[in-house]
User: Fold these one by one.
Assistant:
Number 1:
Amino acid sequence: MADNTTVFDLIRHGEPEGGPMYRGSKDDPLSEAGWQQMRDAITEGDVWDAIVTSPMLRCVHFAQELSDRYGIPLHKDKRLREINFGEWEGRTASEVMASDGERLSQFWANPAANTPPGGETARAFNHRVVESWQHWQQELEGQNVLIVCHGGVIRMLIADVMNIPLEHAFSSLATPYACRSRVQVDTSAHGRFQSLVAHGDFKALAP
């Protein structure tokens, strides 16, 4: 096994049109504010060899802009779509809390055992996201990669990196709009090791 390092930068999409809500598979594009959030999150020091994106409009439009501007190969992966929230989609957190508060609280307390009505199970969601994650680690090994995706997807990826149980994966990490994370994957004769290097506002972390 050859020694190499793969660096993944994860970025959540900015604010979509319609504002904050349980959006899931609802395919809204970025708002003007969302575009600005995404552009502001990119730094002068960012250099990527490849971009992987969710095909949903709030992700793929920005990924395509970066790909076109810098001539970076772009890969679309439907496994990186957000979790489907079923009957909660298109509704704000306060609206869902008012009508279905007990089930919403149970979901956040233990998503592995509590699925939104008519929605995707957390285990199925986690399985497809981790499957994608393992694929791109192998496919783009040794490169610097940007993944443009969703808050729930980032939570699943970080949970895999840090061995966080699925029961706690949704509640253990804040992922605001245009939030960034960096994961380093080192491969050697000793195996493959994943490390969370940074999470949050990268510009604020710069010296």
Number 2:
Amino acid sequence: MKQYIYNKQNGLWYELWGDYYIPCLDLPAEKEERSIGVWGRRHLRYIREHKKALYTSLLTSGKLQSYLADVEEQAQELFDRLMKQRAEREGITETLKADNQMEWVQRMNALRSAVIETVNAEVIFV
């Protein structure tokens, strides 16, 4: 049996693996390399488990990396903006940090947890 065969009907090459011919398919290369941080990985895990059709479509089209990088940027921008706005609204300032560090840490941790939940609900788990 030949190692490679060409099918004129669908225009694909096939490679012999054991007793079967498997199509020789290559995923399209992604054009850009952008980093994927914690938000992108969290969204990847979510779509892999709960939105399998979207995940498969993005993976096979070669757009998964750029999609996750976009989600990462969007989530990080929202996180930064909400942290700044809510810290100002709740009076968590640098003077509080200088006067009472433990209270500042406690309030910032509580604020950070609340903002993470908001970003998860609005960007990641959608």
Number 3:
Amino acid sequence: MDILLIGGLWLDGSAWDEVAAALGPLGHRPVPITLPGQGDGSTSATLDDQVAAVLAALDAAQDKVMVVGHSAACTLAWLAADARPERVAKVVFVGGFPATDGGTYADFFPIDEGVMPFPGWGPFEGPDTADLDEETRRRMAAAWVPVPEGVAKAVVSLTDERRFDVPVVIVCPEFTPAQAQEWIDAGDVPELARVKHIDFVDIDSGHWPMVTRPTDLARLLAEA
């Protein structure tokens, strides 16, 4: 199966290199996506541009695909399911949840000259970064790309209720499956409250398992 891999804020397609290398021998075709504005040199990209890039990769596949979104890009994966519900076999959310219709994509940190740069590690101290040593932090931050304002502040539009028929897997890194279920039950993730089939998978990592546990993440994706 083709597995589309979509990184969250500041990540380009290379963030998935080790996961992709492990998925191939497991019988799948990994398709890491470098999103417009996150690795192609553009600072004017919009969320629509990023959705278009994901859909282009999806449409290039011969059969149904599994779409994997990490962190903020869980919303991008869900937008793909909304746009092509008949072509998406499964959506996997890694360390995040999709935004609701009418919500903003990722307006989390200050904008500086039209982009949202990585704000430093301060906001992520705790379970998110517990498995990152100083060298890994330095290497990650040096590779990351500021996110265009047109992506971060975009309004999410979901239109096709067939998305709720697409099976979902939630990979839980810095939170537990029990916590994720509690948040859904409490109404904190309205989109997932309406999904007909959800599975939860635990992985013992911080927020970036593609960096710290790539082989284990690849195995979990293959099993999914």
Number 4:
Amino acid sequence: METTPPLADRVFETGVAMMEGLAVYLGDRLGWYRELAASGPLVPAELAARTHTHHRYALEWCEQQAAAGFLTAHDATGDGGERRYGLDAEGVAVFTDIRSTDFLAPFVRLVAASAIQLPALLEAYREGGGVSWQQLGDDARTGQADMNRPWFEQVLPGELAGAPHLHAALGRPGAAVADVGCGYGWSTIALARAYPEARVVGIDIDGPSVERARAHAADAGIENVEMVHSAGEEIEGGPYDVVFLFECLHDMPYPVEVLTAVRRSLADGGTVVVMDEAAADELTAPADLVQRALYGFSVLCCLPDSLSHPDSVGTGTVIRRDVVERYAREAGFGRVDELPIEDFGFWRFYELR
């Protein structure tokens, strides 16, 4: 009997995983996961009624999710009873819990944002140019923001407290702190909450993101924070004691210009912290799952966004250590150290002096 080659198996599994991922997107955007987390197991008709969606689609989705192992299936009870579907504790964390670092529905949302733009990506790959963050839209914005939020809220303050010189600089009364590339503001808000005597300024080039960041800060009741709509090449409000760039340097079309502006915005003795992808120092083939994920983001999202700007350097998601060091040197920094922060998502922390 002829056996299927392993590569064919992998590609088939990839296709199935793509379909399952898009089904996760449906459950996330339609509110089905959130309703199941709030209500417990439901029959599909109840799920559809509570979310104002169509019963037949809810039935098919529930069965598909159970087949994929994402939902639990409970046997029907009584004559003519229907099977109920629910989420176990792990499923609640992965699909609905905005406080959990296992919250990965936004990961799928970000991938789906790129999938929707496949015709534009094909054109960019053929003709040059790119697909901008604006084209990717709110699914990309919220996907990245919601995926990173629990890391900033739950993990970042403790890690910074474990770096004594940074903790002291941030905790000084009147300390001036900038968060360049703040997106929806969750990192800025986390810094402001952890260091209430500091003045924290979030800066981002994307207008809709800044509007949401301002709303998030207001909702949180954070008063020592300001959100500014500005390009990273124009750092206002300094001099700053500490400037952060969280997972954005690799996206920037002009990273050296941004780092140069950041350096010029520093107070005497100020420091810069860059958190970016923990890319391997060189390509390995085949690579581990993290490196494959970074390349996936790069070909579908980050590189096309960067190349949508004229004369972009086109870094891409796979920003290796030597690239960060080169950009820092070209921007006038004399030293780049890696901070001892480990097991922080896909990311690595650099300190530029």
